[in-house]
Each structure stands twice: as structure tokens, then as C-alpha cells.
TrEMBL record:
It comes from the Bacteria. Signal peptide: none annotated. Residues 135-200 form the HTH luxR-type domain. The modification 4-aspartylphosphate is found at residue 43. It comes from Streptomyces tubbatahanensis. Keywords: DNA-binding, Phosphoprotein, Transcription, Transcription regulation. InterPro entries: CheY-like_superfamily, NreC/VraR/RcsB-like_REC, Sig_transdc_resp-reg_C-effctor, Sig_transdc_resp-reg_receiver, Tscrpt_reg_LuxR_C, WalR-like. This is Response regulator transcription factor. Residues 1-110 form the Response regulatory domain. Pfam families: GerE, Response_reg.
Amino acid sequence: MVRAGFAMVLAAEDDIDVVAEAEDGVHAVELAERHKPDVALMDIRMPRMDGLEALRRLTRPGTVNPPKVVVVTTFDDDAYVQRALSEGASGFLLKDSGPALLVEAVRAAASGKALVSPAITVRLLERLNSAGPSPRAPHTALSPREEALVRLVARGLTNAEIATELTISVGTVKTHLTNVQTKLSARNRVEIAAWAWESGLVDGRG
């Protein structure tokens, strides 16, 4: 039922085509190798093969045009998040993130970016906070507007919430995020948030 719901949400978008649905990890790998999708959504726990192993197989070295894999799951354990991202996942969402974030994650992955659920970003940032900050000056290459945006990312706001907070369009938020990721060599929101704490741009109060 969840899979069917995701398919309906994505298929309703003009720029997204759902080419296949898989019932388990083995089937997912088979269908991905057959259809060559740009993006694959993968759960963590699935019959016969879990999502992390399927991710490894789809993105193994030597694979021609591997799909971008977005992990969408109810299991938000930090170890799962870190393993998925280290294995090359192009996003990590919780199933209750909502349809708008799901669509945004697929589009981000297709364009070579990575999106992580804001709630996960905040929790991983809090883990950094408990370890204590590394006193480094903020990156001078960031503009004041980009620094403001990074603070909001570190607080876990979505693109739409950031747009409202800064009184700019969602498109402008995405442009700023792209620029920030390039300047910081960050792959996703978690790495942006981690940099914000480590640099002293935010503190334990957010």
C-alpha cells in the first residue's frame, strides 16, 4: 500500500515517470538493471535482500549509468543513515516526510544532488553538538544570505519553510543551496548542517 501510494504521488508529476515497482530487494535490482531508471527508491528492510545490499549492487564500481538511489524508510537509525550515505545513496527520507519532500528528493537525485529528511539532519547535528564544537571561523566565501540559509538548514527547516523565513521563492532557496554545497563541497543537508556546527555558525541553541 505504501509503495502504491508513492507511485501515485510520483506518477502525478509531469516530469516523473514510474517505470516499475518491486516487491523485494532482489526484484528491485533485477528491475533496475532491466529498466535503467534515473532514480530508484529503496526501503531499508525488504524480503530476500535489504535495501543497503541492493544499493551496493546497483552502484558497484564498473556499473554503467547506475541509478541514483534514494532510501525511503521508517527506520531512521543513525547507523542506517550513515551507511546509506557512505554507500552512495542520493537521499534518505522517512516515510512520513510527506509527498512534497518525496518529489523533491527524486528531482534532487536526478539532478545529481542529495536530499536528507530535515528531522534526520537535526538529529545528526545534535550528535555533533554533544561531542562539542570545533572552533573554526565561518567560511568567508559564503554570503550573508547563504549563511542565514545554512543556519535554517541546520535547524531542520524544509526548502518551503526556508523560503517563508527568508521571504524568497523556493527556487531561490534551491539556487542558494546549490551554491552552498559547491562552496562547502557538501553532498547533502546533513553535511551542510555538520559544517554549520563545526564552523561555529550555529551553537547548541540552534
